[in-house]
Amino acid sequence: MRYFARKVAFFLATLWAVVTLNFLIPRLQPGDPAEIMVKRLAGKDSQLDPAQVQAMRAMLGTPDGSLWSQYTGYLGELAHGNFGLSYTYYPFPVTEVIGQAIWWTVVLVVVTQVLSFAVGTVLGAYAAWRRNTRFDSVVTLGSTFLGTLQPFWIALLLIYLLGYTLGWFPTSGGYEAATPGFNGPFIQEAVSHSFLPALALLVVTPIGWVLGMRNTMIMNLGEDYIRLARAKGLPDRRIALGYAARNALLPSVTGFALALGGVLGGAILVETAFDYPGLGRLMGEAVENKDYPLLQTLMLLTTAGVLLANLVADLMYGVLDPRARRAQS
Amino acid sequence: MTTATSPDALLEVDGLSVRYEPKRNPSLTAVSDVSFSIRPGEFVGLIGESGSGKTTLGTALLRLLDRPARISEGSVRLDGTDITALSEDELRPLRWRDVSTVFQSSMNALNPVIRVEAQFRDVIEEHSGLRGDAVTERVRELFDMVMIDHRFIRAFPHELSGGMKQRVNLALALALEPKVVLLDEPTTGLDVVVQHSILENIRRLQREKGFAVLFISHDIGTVLDLSDRILVMYAGRIVEENDAASLLRDPMHPYTKGLLGSYSDPRAETVRITYVPGRLPDLTKDVTGCPFVARCPERISLCESVTPAFAPLAGGDVACHVARVQRGGEVDGLAAADVGEPTRRFAGPEFVKTAAESTEALTRPALLSVDSVGKTYERRRGLKVERTVAVDDVSFELRRGEVTALVGQSGSGKTTLARLITGVDKPSTGRIVFHGPDGEQEVAGFRGRALRGYRKHVQMVFQDPYSSLNPAKRIGQALERPLVNHHGLSGRALRDRVRELLETVALTPTERFVDRYPHELSGGQRQRVVIARALAAEPEIVIADEPISSLDVSIRAEILELLGSLVREHDMGILYITHDLLSARMLSDEVLVLNDGRVVERGPTLDVIRSPRDEYTRRLLDAVPNPFG
Ligand SMILES: Nc1ncnc2c1ncn2[C@@H]1O[C@H](COP(=O)(O)OP(=O)(O)OP(=O)(O)O)[C@@H](O)[C@H]1O
Ligand code: SF4
Ligand SMILES: [Mg+2]
After folding, report:
1. Using a CB-CB distance cutoff of 8 angstroms, which residues of chain A are in contact with residue B105?
2. Mean per-residue pLDDT, B14-24
3. C-alpha to C-alpha distance for A271 and A263, rounded to whole angstroms
4. Is the confidence at residue B4, as pLDDT, over 50?
5. Which of A144-148, B278-282, B286-290, B439-443 ranks highest by mean pLDDT?
6. Has residue B349 got a pLDDT over 70?
7. B122, A232 in Cβ contact below 8 A?
8. Residue A71 Cα distances to A38, A77, A296, angstroms
9. Is B81 exposed, middle or buried (0-12, 13-18, 19+ CB in 10 A)?
10. Residue A129 to residues B171, B188, B599: CA-CA distances in angstroms?
């Protein structure tokens, strides 16, 4: 239990540190933190745009009162989900803009990540179990080859082939005419629009899991406990699943949690290529339009996501591997 | 050779050969034409040095060989069924029910992420009708058999100590009351006292339950202690087979004599041990003549050209021309007159230690005085401060040209004491005084340059020669470092000194060793390099922390002999840390037995061994296999 408590405490502490640094850094110099922040992001020589400063101030607060009261004010705003107004989508609050985009990404990326992980792990485990057979060679060589291709390039190829040439799937956007919400036409459109970006992700993301799983499992297959399981006369299936694959899965599970945390990074390229209305595209827009409040919040969100993923990875590892619990507590 | 199918054999191996055929390296025959059989309830020992093919043979008997290994010839019959001809599906129901095993180095044999109980449950449910609580009940019984508390049934493997793991592995092997259990060095790497109690446990259970055992070891003392019958393996072949008593009384093959020579009674006034110099032949090449010929002191010219057959002789079986003719057997082209009388001794290099030598050594001038030294470690655990008394009121003297043995269980404070002596740590109480070239100096007072100077005089040799050498450095480079650092040598002088050092540790011809990498050397050779590196600083004191415990028994004597000659010829003092009393007797003049940080017994080695007063010392002595006593 101590292990889990420590991990949660560590997560909370880091999260708090990140949020506080975000507050402190613009205040280290004298002056208006919102102005300083905008200057820092825009570059020293550029003109200050009052609208931008205004938007920023909604989040960072004004430099009135004691540092402490500013700080509590800031935490209060964050707690209420008030991250300021978006400059691009003025006067919508940042949270609302993000709130709309986030589901697109979560659904697209989480679904593809989970699928990739499942497919990759199963393929990798099977290749390891049948190592040095033709199946193994095909899987290993195939993955290695696909791994050398750029996801963006694959995305373009897919758009060209399945989108323009064959015209099977829409090549950009998230939906057409339907009203967003939980209704048949919308869901159908959303699914068909997400098909190409999902495919682009699905071609590349499983590769890491395939190779990782295969290598760890082959290493595990050489361990004494596997040999012992064979000597015990356990059926192959049991050895493969209960002993070899289960143990080989440990590093992958941690890796998977971390990958989910880093979702945003991976989504940017693909979303941009397909003009898909998710967080990745939003991030691109924020950079392009110098929408700092939005950018700031996205950054905070990403950091929190990575931290959270780390926490989940640690907790899962603790559940799956009894050795970890002791080693660190 | 052909064995008539004996009706009463449980396990029958006939003409078995195993080859490793790696893709990149040359193929080798690790097991060549091996034949033997085991009767129900028989305890058979298989002995041979590292690399002789014992594990490969055992793995073949279990049909667990993986690529690149394969059985290239021969058969293994279990209760009359040739298991080499069975498919995996046909074999599975026999596994564990008929033949079970405890692996060599089986610290890793339990799945680390599954509870111990589940690892019993899966095999019991697979092969028997027991389910649910009946299985738990069976596991309890098994834990009782190996004397482990029931609360560990629900433990994870990492929560068990090394000794407990081995007991659990043993319990697991007995789970289905198999007919044969294969034990591959089941206790190597454990504390001697723990080893001893596990082996006793094995022998007792074997008598009670009546299963047969094939017990693999490189330690002939243990094998003789436990086994009814012994197989001696060399270079993939069985070279001698006999019942334990006959083998001890009248060993026929010179290699067997060599192995026996590594034991001696530590209570004798003069102990002598012999050892077999050299290494195994290259198994990738076809052997002409006797595979042992290069190391055999009894060889004759016939041995170079004709391979001796493994055939019955004088109640056992042996593969040696000379032994056969000596005992009235017939060998083409060899007459009784060509060979001498049979001897029991291995006429090879010998290491002798007399009581008189020790008495003389104990009168020498002091080199290091340890005076009422204590060390308490404090460790913060949350808010509490935990105090551990690692060393408590220890006094002794190390003399020039003398060896003091520091004996004790793991955790008894040996390593802490070594740290205090090298100046890595300072004692909490008491003094350590070095009688060096600059007069008497207190070790705890050394700082900076003086400390570095002192460390040059005190060198350490560690347990594991595999990890103490940098695998990426050639032997020559490994030796040059300390020479450059401590003596500022360079160029010719440096090269000459490296050669001298290699000669001192008998790695000759030296030019064959300077450019080699550690992995190209045997364990014994590597430990020699480590010793040479320690000698490079020209130390006055060498602290040898279990320098032979990770080595094969057959090369242990070699290293002991080297250390012994260094003391005599270089007038230094050695602090020899060990828990093996036989080697303590071979090397040391005085012995100090530590328990819980305190000296529980101290005196001239021979006196302590002959009349131990402390309970722990007695247990250590019991743990020394003594086939002669
Ligand atoms: N996987 C492998 N590939 C190639 N050669 C191997 C392999 N495993 C073992 N060998 C070789 O087979 C021979 C026999 O090795 P084996 O492990 O059976 O010896 P052993 O008697 O059990 O030694 P030890 O006492 O060190 O356990 C050695 O020459 C070894 O180098
Ligand atoms: S056959 Fe010759 S070389 Fe081989 S062991 Fe016998 S005497 Fe030695
Ligand atoms: Mg072995």
Report:
1. 224
2. 89
3. 12
4. no
5. B286-290
6. yes
7. yes
8. 19, 10, 17
9. middle
10. 29, 31, 55
Judge: B113–A323 Cβ closer than 8 Å, yes or no. Answer: yes
Strand pairing of B541-545 and B458-461?
parallel
Average pLDDT on B51-80 reads 90
Confidence of residue B487 (pLDDT cuts 50, 70, 90): confident
Between CA A287 and CA A289 the distance in angstroms is: 6
Confidence check: pLDDT of B183 > 60: yes
Domains detected in chain B:
111-170 (no CATH), 270-353 (no CATH), 356-623 (3.40.50.300)
pLDDT band at B1 (very low <50, low <70, confident <90, very high): very low
> B55: Cβ below 6 Å to ligand 1?
yes
Assess contact for A263 and A113: CB atoms under 8 A: yes
Q: b or e along A289-313 (b: 16 or more beta carbons within 10 Å of the residue's beta carbon)?
A: ebbbbbbbbbebbbbbbbbebbbbb
A319 against A134, higher pLDDT: A134
Residue B584 amino acid letter: A
User: Dihedral sign, CA of A249, A250, A255, A261?
Assistant: positive
Q: What is the set of domains in chain A, with CATH numbers?
A: 2-79 (no CATH), 99-321 (1.10.3720.10)
Q: Which amino acid is at A154?
A: I
For residue B238, what pLDDT is reported? Answer: 96
Cβ separation B106–A232 shorter than 8 A: no
Mean pLDDT of A310-324: 81
Q: What is the mean pLDDT of residues A146-169?
A: 76
The rounded distance, in Å, linking the Cα atoms of A16 and B558 is 63
**Interface contacts A/B by beta carbons within 8 Å:** 73
Comparing CA positions, the residue from B44, B58, B46 lying closest to residue B227 is B44
* Omega within 30 of 0 (cis) for the link into A91: yes
Q: What pLDDT score was predicted for residue B310?
A: 92
Single-letter amino acid code for the residue at B482: P
Q: How many CB atoms lie within 10 A of CB B188?
A: 18
Contact call for residues B238 and B252 (beta carbons, < 8 A):
no
**Ligand 1 lined by B54 (C-beta under 6 Å):** yes
Q: Is the pTM of this model over 0.90?
A: no
Q: Report the C-alpha gap between A66 and B235 in whole angstroms.
A: 84
Closest C-alpha to A204, from A259, A284, A277: A259
Angle subtended at Cα B185 by Cα B184 and Cα B191, rounded to the nearest 5 degrees? 150
H/E stretch holding B570 reads: helix B553-570
- Tell which of A131, A136, A228 to mutate to test the B interface (max B CBs under 10 Å): A228
Q: Round to whole Å and give the CA distance between A100 and B36.
A: 78
